[in-house]
Design a protein that fits this description.
The structure holds two protein chains of two kinds. By secondary structure, chain A is of the alpha/beta class. Chain A has 13 helices and 16 strands. Chain A folds into two domains: about 1-245, Thiamin diphosphate (ThDP)-binding fold, Pyr/PP domains (Rossmann fold, 3-Layer(aba) Sandwich); about 255-380, Rossmann fold. Chain B has one domain (about 25-310): Rossmann fold, CATH 3.40.50.970. Classes of the chains: A alpha/beta, B alpha/beta. Chains A and B meet through strand 3, helix 3 and strand 9 of A and strand 5, strand 6, helix 3 and helix 5 of B. Strand 9 of chain A pairs parallel with strand 6 (about 80) of chain B, so a sheet runs across the interface.
Amino acid sequence: MSRKVIESSDAVALAVKLCRAQVCPMYPITPSTHIPEKISEYVANGELEAEMIDVESEHSAASAVIGAAATGSRTFTATSSQGLALMFEILPITSGMRLPTVMAVANRALSAPINIWNDHSDSVSARDQGWIQLYAESSQESLDSIIQAYKISENKNVLLPAMVCFDGYSLTHVFEPVDVPSQKEVDAFLPGFKPLHRLDPKKPLTMGPIGFPNSFMFFKQQQQEAMLDSIDVIKKTNAEFKKAFGRSYGDGLLDLYQIDDAEYAVIGMGTLCGTARVAIDKLRQQGKKVGLIKVRCLRPFPEKELQNAIKDLQAAAVIDKHISLGQEGPLFTDIRSAVYCNDISINSYIAGLGGRDITVKHFEKVFADLEAGKQKGEWLF
Amino acid sequence: MACRGKEGRAFSLKQRMVKGLPYAEYFASGHRACAGCGEALVVRHVVKAAGPNSIAVMSTGCMEVVSTPYPETAWEIPWIHVAFENNAAVASGIDAALKMQGKRKGINLLVFGGDGASFDIGFGALSGAIERGHRFTYIATDNEAYMNTGVQRSGATPFLASTTTSPAGSKIHGKQQPKKPLPLIVASHGIRYVATVTPANVFDLHKKVKKALATEHASFIHAFSVCPVGWRSKSDQTIEIAKLAVQTRVFPLYEIEDGVLKFSQRIEKKNAKPVKEYLQTQGRFKHLTEEEVQKVQAYVDARYDFLLGIEGKKCFDVLY
């Protein structure tokens, strides 16, 4: 283990190197671009034994990932925003073909107006496509989540692709101290990828056939079962990670802060949780019983864990960095549905779209709203 | 395909040859292609020529649908289908993974796409995969329209042909644009081997597939693929129509090797059959007036003359 001051993009690239990804088809897009740059450097300098495929589009990046994963290699790609949108067609195919892989999504707003800054509209829009989605709060968590994600994705009871989502700019381009594990430690935690099936002339098989109405639903049911089974695998992997590296993120699904005696809580994902922690510390000094529920894993959705975390609260506010236009914040929808039977008031706030700052003041206002018994959230400008 | 002799000893028919072609099939019969499907014949012969040490990637399209209705498959070699426009990108991943695993040598990577996948929606992925120097043999099985969705116009649909989206109306008489010259565009990428084949010229097809597979980087085969449903032709006329396409110079048979075009069957104008004979075999050209038939004749002659003009000369730079 060594401590380095690096940006999250470097932390992610380092994690990919430590995980010994073998095929990395990548296409540059702001703000994820430093990742392919760094991985190219590793490959060019012989620090990572991998094939870097400089594809001509994100669609081809996601497609080449499938080709390589189906041939039995450990794969990686990274993207943002429009890039993820262009990959969209391939996302449900990757999960439907049950191919393990890890993709880093440097979260960025979807156009229009074109905007290169952070919100969660890209990956949250992709939440229904059968990928496990982990959201990181820090550079350290970005690095650690990549390593965990491979272990989860390749688990024989899971075999689903995983996205590690981390905020554009507020993480990708921010330098923080990061503890970088040694190669030996990572090798011990994450052995080489051993696929159950692969394209091999010695053992021919057909991958990606047409499923008629008599079989299609069974495939989807199996995917759903694997998704639900992955909840325990994510928890277990997080616990094993703690044993190996001394760090963990809540139970792997939710990360709770000052919740034990809290009356009011905010619920959110990614870097806004860091700001929330500062606001909570400040309010706690004033004697307010406030806390944070960080949703680390959006898919599979940790319903039971959430019900448990929320049970003693009087009210909570969900901060969404995305809006399902014509409806509401998607995280709010998920949470309200999960706590439907709990006697708790939940408000929805939309914040931080297209890189708009979310400050301590915003959280102070949200907690004041909750305390005042307000029944409705708002857009935080 | 193992048979048992008198003493119950298994022997393989896979080693047998018939007229110099392997007896073994790797695209099994029993698939659900229409009677007279030219594309199925092309696919069958390409994999027959490639043999068992092959991996096939296929775009969404008729062949994917008819050959892999889960849980059945017609494929006796490893086969993968992902989507419509990304066969060459999927192949890039396979090529890279095999290289990383030290298994690249000796494995043929066949990439099949129809004309929709190759000329139109997947053209960018094909161009990118070639440019990156991946090793694969791309087979564009061209039946000149989006047949899987019910005969819609593609960039490969010929001049004046009628499709469901370029119908022979009273005002507009079929497709108004020429066919995209994909083999020449691919050759311009600087690869060493490009060829055209038809299911009527089987020995020629086998020879060309072998040459393509021996190429170090990408190689490309444009396969004329009669579609009785879309072309409104008789299903027992598929081979005849493919022969006519060559004899009327509608579909020139050639190779571009190391940047030099060489005809496999060079048809002089004086020996060529009139294009009308070819057009008459298909309902998609039924609406053509005599004047339009002559227009198509002139169009076909001009395209062939162009190829005759570059024949034997180094017309394409070789980069790989």
